[in-house]
Design brief:
The chain is mainly α and about 230 residues long. The chain has eleven helices and no strands.
Length: about 230
């Protein structure tokens, strides 16, 4: 009986799950989730959809694997801080930059809680929280607070940037317009918004993000000392 198996020809690169994931990331970066189709993926890899299904179950599996690949790289690059606090800051900034570069990652993390990319982030954060000698009763609260802040703020920042790009809005012009509008608000009804309008005009998202991580770390230190 003749086997219905296609051999890799000389000069071809064998189709692997890793190659499929890398190609999926390229499609997601270029066109977003709507651009990730098995037809487009097959064309990019010069193969058939059936060969892809041999390595991934469906689009959901592929999205999750692509997300996990980005997260794994971000966590691995953040693992050598001098102190647990330094490592946690590095993890936060690594995730912030990764989600900024790949906005679809934030949406996938929100859509698939409890899967490997989420577990990978929680493990990376949790080990450092443990290294801070946080009491066992506070381990989950401290870890989940850092996780929620890092992923949530990074995801929102990336979503805002994507909306701005879609509308063709320059970030500096956008911030200037909002700050100017805030400064014109009623002083009695919106005293706080008027007071921070100037800061908002020139704020740095990355710096603000890291300041938030530090505020949580300061709170953890206070709780640990009680």
């Amino acid at each position: 009986m003749t086997k219905n198996t296609r051999r890799t020809q000389r000069g071809e690169t064998a189709l692997t799950r890793e190659r499929i994931i890398d190609a999926a990331i390229d499609l997601l970066d270029a066109s977003g989730e709507s651009g990730l189709t098995f037809r487009a993926l097959a064309a990019m890899l010069a193969t058939g959809a059936g060969a892809i299904y041999f390595h991934v179950a469906d689009k959901g599996d592929l999205l999750n694997a692509a997300c996990d690949s980005i997260v794994a790289q971000a966590i691995a690059a953040s693992a050598d801080g001098a102190t647990p606090q330094d490592t946690l800051r590095a993890i936060g900034l690594g995730l912030f930059d990764a989600i900024d570069a790949h906005p679809w990652v934030g949406a996938e993390l929100a859509r698939a809680p409890g899967t490997m990319p989420t577990l990978r982030i929680l493990e990376g954060i949790g080990r450092q929280v443990q290294a801070l000698a946080v009491p066992d009763a506070l381990l989950w609260r401290a870890t989940s607070s850092l996780f929620s802040y890092m992923v949530g703020v990074a995801g929102q920042n990336a979503a805002n940037a994507r909306i701005g790009q879609a509308r063709g809005v320059d970030r500096a012009d956008f911030l200037d317009g909002l700050a100017t509008a805030w400064m014109r608000l009623d002083a009695t009804a919106y005293p706080f918004m008027r007071s921070v309008a100037g800061q908002f005009r020139e704020h740095d998202d990355r710096v603000d993000f890291l300041a938030g991580v530090d505020l949580i770390l300061d709170g953890i230190a206070v709780q640990r000392a009680r």
